Amino acid sequence: MEFFLLTLLLLAIIGLSSFIHHFMPYIPVPLVQIALGVLLAALPIGIHIPMEPELFFVLFIAPLLFHDGKNVSRHALWKLRKPILLLALGLVFVTVFAIGYLIYWMIPSIPLPAAFALASILSPTDVVAVSAISSRLKIPQTIMHVLEGEGLMNDASGLVAFKFAVAATVTGVFSLAEASGSFLVISIGGLAGGAILSILIIQLKILIRRLGMEDVTIHMLIQLLTPFVIFYLVEHMHLSGILSVVAAGIVHTIYRERDQSPAMQLQVVSQSTWTVLIYILNGLVFLLLGLQIPSVINEIFKDPLFNNWEVSKYIFILSAALLLLRFLWISAAWQWNWLKKQIKMPSLRAIGIITISGVRGAVTLAGAFTIPYVLADGGPFPQRSLIIFIAAGVILVTLLTASIFLPILARPEKGNTNELRNEMERDAKLRMIDAAIRSIRELMNDENRGAAVSVISSYNQIRNRLNTGSAEISEQLKLLETEIRMKALDAEANYIEKLKFEEKIDRETIYMSEEHIQRMRLAVTNRMHFRRLFVWTLAKRSLLKVLQIFVPKGQERLKNRQAQTKKMIHLKLNMAKAAIKYLNNQMTPENEHVYLVIIGEYSEMITKFKLAKKGADSTHYRHLQRELRVKAFQAERDEIQNLYEEGEITTEIIRKIRKQINIREAYWMEESSLHSH
Asked: Hey, what domains does the chain have and what are their CATH numbers?
């Protein structure tokens, strides 16, 4: 029962961290979660969760890296393989030797093999922490791909180096040739093992599907168990479990891209499930990190053998040394053109961003806790508590450094601030419109289809206005829209010709329908002329109605006119359907945004014709529109808030867009209330 309550408490704190981040988005979520973990451990309620490294790696690191492997760009990994390997392998081993000797020189009580062990565990960067901190920043995509690739690969190299350094400390024996050979075997074996096991699991899922078992629950359960099973089996074979789950994630992505089976429901469920799972696991990782810090600090600060200022100084010196070494290594890579060709920004800023992004995280602390308590001869492992304390301190310092300096380095240049702000605002509005349309499509059914298409059409019109940035683009869009409208009218005319050929239409109706099509063509090609014609036609019809009432036999003529109007409504309804059928056949992903606007207009016309034909009140239709509009406005607000929290837009832009949403909603509500009276 205590374990259950503790789990609920941790999940509630993760939710609280998101709530705090919502109101203080400039503070990265990992720092909020670590602070809450420290606060929870400091409270006198007796909460203590011991760090079990083996369980930690299986339970947290395996699914997180599997998910990252599934979502990382394979093309980018291959294209940027040189800088990624330079950081994930070269920098790790340089760090082990350079920082190892610095630790040995600075802290003589730590023997050289143990110093190498500490340097090894400090060498891997944390891709989870980097992603969380950079989520609100405009970091170039190429740099993010380099950091993600480094974070996926350097865990294995750092942990293998750590394993041999610890073994050398415990046994007193070390062979460079043996260590190098073992590293290759462990790394390549881990990648191969993960890929092979992943292929076997995929074949199992294919077999289950061939047996007729399309149950989403079973397939989702297999997918969730995959990283845990692969990590455990590969580690049991003494190979790299970390690289195995990364390889498994990449293999699963390749299969998903080539799979042609109708598994849309599984993809939707999979995405939703993994989103929730990764959110919880990320939160638990940093919460557990925060829970460990007070006990680690107390153990050192209360020990009379250690000077508190002295051990704190070690942390700052080592953190600075790690960043300096990283800066020099990346600068050298830049000079060798291994990074310069791909990254289009000033060298000092790019190097600074990659350097500051070298954040240490959960793998560092979990690895430090795997250090044994005793040596082979039965003696205590030298300075085990101090090593764990330094590892925890370096994690905090690098996290804080990145949180403070990354926003400064990633800030856009002043010269292009206005252009960037306008581009940022436009992109935000487009994403807001996409979110609104997505929310309407999710709610669409047979009953509200007409109202939904009408609302979507209005949003597509807004999108088209946003896309007409320059006069040239605007003119091209107008020409395309005119061309499509004329073709739709041709489809209506062809429908009339078909009825004429089949002798299903009388002469007067043919005349009226052709007159209608001619007026619409005039409206498309010459709008000013059409407006004058429309006003004249409206005045003429009103005059005829008045004359028909007072002139003898006017009542009878009015009835005939009404019968003819009903016949025309039925015909126009079918003409609109013919136009929609043609437009749907001609629509492609490239021109969809224009076609959907015109299809929306025809769909709304059909709905109105149906209501008029039945003599029905349009209240129900407006009610459906109102429900969809309310959901769409809420989707707009949610998307804008998400963009703000992710750092995609500034405070100034979110206020401006919120005001525009409020104005549009107020106008729509006013218009809706006028129609209802």
From this structure: 2-411 (1.20.1530.20), 472-594 (no CATH)
